[in-house]
Amino acid sequence: MNPRAPPLRGSLPPEGADPAWGGPAPDRPAADSPATRLATRLAFLVAGFGLACWAPLVPFAKQRLGVGDGVLGALLLCLGVGSVVAMLWAGWFSARHGSRPVVIAGGLGVALLLPLLALADAPLTLGLALMLFGAALGSLDVAMNVHALAVERDAGRPLMSGFHALFSVGGLLGAAAMTALLSAGWSPLAGTLLGSGLMLAAMALVAPRLLRATPAAEAPTLAWPRGPVLLLALLAGVCFLVEGAVLDWSALLLTEGGLLAAAQGGLGFMVFSVAMTAGRFGGDALCARLGDRVVLTAGGLLAVGGFVLVLLAASAGPAMAGFFCIGLGASNLVPVLFRRAGAQTVMAPGLAIAAISTTGYAGVLLGPAAIGFVSQLVGLPIAFALLAALLALLPLLAHRVVARPA
Predict the structure, then answer these.
(1) What is the pLDDT of residues 186-223, one digit of tens each?
(2) Global model pTM greater than 0.85
(3) CB–CB of 140/47 below 8 Å?
(4) What keywords appear on the UniProt entry (predicted)?
């Protein structure tokens, strides 16, 4: 690796960023080894798997508690609040003490808390469980990205897209496994216990292979997005909001619309995850060939078209095709936004990317709660139509996003 090479763009700043990211560089061991790459990939896999296991459980939780969309939206807000608060803590803690303990604690928390989501039989109990589950997910999410960038920088070649693809693979496996188990007659609790066991086994492989990085002397300062970074952050929030809505509400949209039975409700998110994964594996080559502006425009239009297909579908087949279009179209939108954040000059690249990450993940975790409140007022199909309108901002503003050379 060339020690003078600039930081790779499109990811969170490393633990104790070097001067190119606006801070001192830590004295840490080399990260370019198969073991650390395996640990990082498994951490992303666990995060995606644990989050996706919750999607097929939403209709069962609603039925078990006997609540409406408004109350369910409030419960999902608990998950988001726990996540965002934990993200702020995890970023500071990782900078001061290294990401390794946060990755381990977050991964174990996700695994151990998942069965509680199937046990909670009262709104208050489920709200508390979702808040803790969200805190574990948020901590893991921030810390694994910090760890991934350290591995990528020491490797001297792009790895972040592959790591994030593993998050998508985890989402696909989690949704598929939980849907298959529920369809086979397993109870939600039995399904979550099996999922928990698989995640604990993965974390047993992760823990000893993570970097034991020397922490930075001072934690990074929290920076609010401004100028072009603010536009990038808002668009990232929209993209993540769409992903969160598909995760938390697609099963209800399909089952309450009479397109699928409750046990098969997770198929929509599973198809979305397949398309998202495929798009991310090929995203780097696509951007290199067509350019960021074309990818933003074409991807945004394809995703909006997918929403239209889902909302007009009279049977499960067209609805599944719509979710595939949404996933494929949206798959490379966020990576492009991260890359443009590295190109702007208003803020240090590391701070800009961290600000966009926080805004984006707030969208995926807090946004679905807003969908619940909108659904309570005007219905879930109209709430999804509003998501499509927001997503149309990506192709409309693509020329502004790429106005500065990358």
Answers:
(1) 999 999 999 999 999 999 999 999 988 655 555 455 55
(2) no
(3) yes
(4) Membrane, Transmembrane, Transmembrane helix
DSSP string over 95-128: HHH-SHHHHHHHHHHHHHHHHHHHH--SHHHHHH
CATH classification code of 34-210: 1.20.1250.20
CATH 1.20.1560.10 describes domain 224-406: no
Q: Residue 342 has which token pair? A: 């590295």
DSSP 245-299: HHHHHHHHHHHHTTSS-GGGTTHHHHHHHHHHHHHHHTHHHHHHHH-HHHHHHHH
195-199: list long-range contacts, CB under 8 Å, 24+ apart.
Answer: 195/49, 195/50, 195/53, 195/114, 196/111, 196/112, 196/114, 196/115, 198/49, 199/46, 199/49, 199/50, 199/107, 199/110, 199/111, 199/114
Segment 126-158, tens digit of pLDDT: 999 999 999 999 889 878 877 877 776 787 666
